[in-house]
Design a protein that fits this description.
14 helices, globular
């Protein structure tokens, strides 16, 4: 469906719409969190240059993956209707060929930044980067075979945080892996909300997602797990290691601050419960966007908890 106002759209607006910068907090927040962990928990001095390069690489690679995914979705007939957040391809602002070319350019540039960081750090980051780029390039195929949730869980959660830690410390640690699970679950919740809404159209075009496998009621249970599970995980990581006499590194007490996000999770749950009879027509349709906002708030609270620990020095 081509936008009849195409001639009035600026070059910048076309490509910003294509790359969806408003989705970047999902991928950049783990980098900020992992960097914060490296400084506060890993006790290294912040290397600003490495942090900026890591953040830029993540933003560029995420944008490249968005473009490539839009191409596959459009060609498969999944994206045909213009919505407020739809990409530039479905609007007719850019062609699929242009999107592919620009996506490849972004992947090359992002990979070049990653290799620069590898030269500064070592092979651990190289392995993380290879896995991340592989997931980004083949994301559409993974998404069509019910592996999209796992893909974003890894790329925009675990690998982002771990990579940021390695960039600052030059070493591997399980801390950024385990402590980022709660944030990664919410990134999966964003995609699940999107796929849950699109189950009918996905099924018609033989696209299998976790939402289509679980069905409507199963998707509701899964969504509850993804939005409430992070709070239980954080509380568990605060208390359980202390009960086990310090065999594992416990999350600081300051992480209880994430419970401030619980009321918002309950609002999301209410939207999900009322999906068939929403209070507002768009409540369920834009549940993915609302979940993305919750994910950002949760990530900011987690990062604030790290720096509060730095300030308060709690045991």
């Amino acid at each position: 469906m081509e936008d009849t106002q195409n001639e009035n759209v600026t070059f910048l607006k076309k490509w910003l719409t294509a790359m969806r910068p408003w989705a970047l907090p999902a991928s950049t927040m783990p980098v900020i969190f992992g960097t914060s962990l490296a400084v506060v928990v890993g006790q290294v001095s912040l290397d600003i240059l490495r942090f900026v390069l890591a953040l830029l690489a993540m933003m560029i690679l995420h944008s490249a993956a968005n473009l490539l995914s839009d191409v596959f979705d459009f060609n498969r007939g999944l994206d045909k209707m213009v919505t407020p957040v739809s990409g530039a391809i479905v609007r007719g602002w850019i062609t699929t060929k242009q999107a592919i070319v620009f996506s490849v350019m972004l992947f090359v540039f992002g990979a070049a930044l990653g290799l620069t960081l590898v030269l500064m750090t070592g092979t651990v980051l190289l392995i993380i980067g290879i896995i991340g780029v592989f997931i980004g390039v083949f994301y559409a195929g993974l998404k069509y075979h019910a592996l999209g949730d796992l893909a974003v869980f890894l790329n925009f959660g675990i690998l982002g945080s771990l990579g940021a830690w390695v960039v600052q410390t030059n070493s591997f640690s399980w801390i950024p892996v385990i402590w980022t699970v709660s944030m990664a679950m919410l990134v999966s919740a964003i995609l699940h909300a999107n796929n849950w809404r699109d189950v009918s159209s996905d099924t018609e075009r033989k696209v299998t997602t976790v939402a289509s496998l679980f069905g409507d009621k199963g998707s509701l249970t899964y969504y509850a797990f993804l939005i409430f599970g992070p709070f239980l995980i954080v509380v568990g990581l605060i208390l359980v290691p202390r009960l086990m006499s310090g065999q594992f590194v416990a999350m600081p007490w300051t992480f209880f601050i994430v419970l401030l996000g619980l009321p918002n999770a309950l609002k999301l749950w209410g939207r999900a419960l009322r999906r068939h009879t929403p209070r507002k027509p768009m409540d369920f349709i834009i549940l993915d966007g609302a979940t993305a906002q919750h994910n950002l708030v949760f990530g900011l609270l987690c990062t604030a908890a790290v720096w509060l620990q730095f300030i308060l020095k709690l045991k």
